Amino acid sequence: MAILEAARKVGLLTTDSTLYIGEVAATDEALGVRITLLDESTGLFNGHDLFVTWTQVRRVWICNNEHEVGRFVHEMEQMVGAT
């Protein structure tokens, strides 16, 4: 949930933007990425997958089990502030 709160804080969750938070289920180097979405209200993966072509991806932040969430959130805030 810290990632979701940070997204709100830095203004990524607005009425004119789309932000998907989820777990990478599969990638295709030529086509795109499939993610299992995180339900904003529960903070749990809801089992719904979304496929996004690389041409539709504007920004990507990747965090895995080895990342410290606080550091990841800080880096996300820095990147948003720099763009």
From TrEMBL:
Q: What is this protein called?
A: Uncharacterized protein
- Which source organism? Symmachiella macrocystis
